[in-house]
Amino acid sequence: MRKALLLAVAVAAALAAFAYVQFEQRKAFENCKLTLVDVRVSELGLTSAKLTLVIDIYNPGSITATLDRAEFDVYADGTYLGHGTIPQRIDIPPNATRRISVPFEASYAGVLSVLKGQRTWTIKGTAYIDTPFGAIAVPFEVKK
């Protein structure tokens, strides 16, 4: 009986430690810096353009930062181009930069007016950090 109790306490402690580490990694994302590196035209269709957003995520912290997913809106010179997502989990090592390429589709209604020349690109969104106690929403804005 005593061994079973010790085993249960050990398992509970291990689960608590695991949950704490996971929580800290996700909380560390709040200190990350996002930089829009490039916006590339991947494909031109009849009604829309497929763009690739190249984003650097810098983690200045001492532990791995985790982004579980994100949703965002893209603007060029204030013109709304559309909504996008980062559906997959991304881990950013401590004191390192992780470059990601995010596909994004924009309707021509907004694209045609902004593809000419230099533009100010803005990405406004929310990163979601999953925890054992629910998701934490972290708003972000990136300009280039």
From TrEMBL:
All residue ranges annotated as the Late embryogenesis abundant protein LEA-2 subgroup domain in the record: 55-143
Q: Which domain of life is it from?
A: Archaea
Name assigned to this protein: Water Stress and Hypersensitive response
The organism of origin for this protein: Thermofilum pendens (strain DSM 2475 / Hrk 5)
Q: Recite the lineage of the species.
A: Archaea, Thermoproteota, Thermoprotei, Thermofilales, Thermofilaceae
